[in-house]
Design goal:
Blueprint lengths: L5 H15 L2 H11 L3 H9 L3 H12 L2 H10 L4 H10 L9
Helix pairs in contact: 1-4, 2-4
């Protein structure tokens, strides 16, 4: 499986870090991804595209989280949508 582009990898890592700032959000992500904490670490290290999609979907599952993430990273909603699309978030790719 090809590696994600650097900008997408950076997005996934910063989105993961944002989600991990709150224990409840982190545990929700772990549950969504179906991973144990060690498996999560391995998937992050391997830049797993499946985990990238889980991180993206979970971030976008709460409008407030997405808005807060954008504010923290000085992104517009359109920029976030493009990053999410690059991470494989199909709902954003549909017209």
């Amino acid at each position: 499986m090809p590696a994600l582009p650097f900008e997408t990898q950076h997005f996934v890592l910063t989105a993961f870090a944002f989600l991990a700032q709150d224990d409840a959000r982190l545990h929700g992500l772990i549950d969504l991804a179906g991973l144990e904490p060690d498996g999560l670490k391995q998937a992050l290290a391997a830049q797993d595209s499946g985990l990238a999609l889980h991180v993206t979907e979970y971030l976008l599952s709460d409008e407030r989280w997405a808005r807060d993430y954008c504010q923290q990273h000085d992104l517009s909603a359109e920029q976030l949508a493009l990053l999410a699309q690059a991470a494989g978030h199909e709902r954003l790719m549909q017209s």
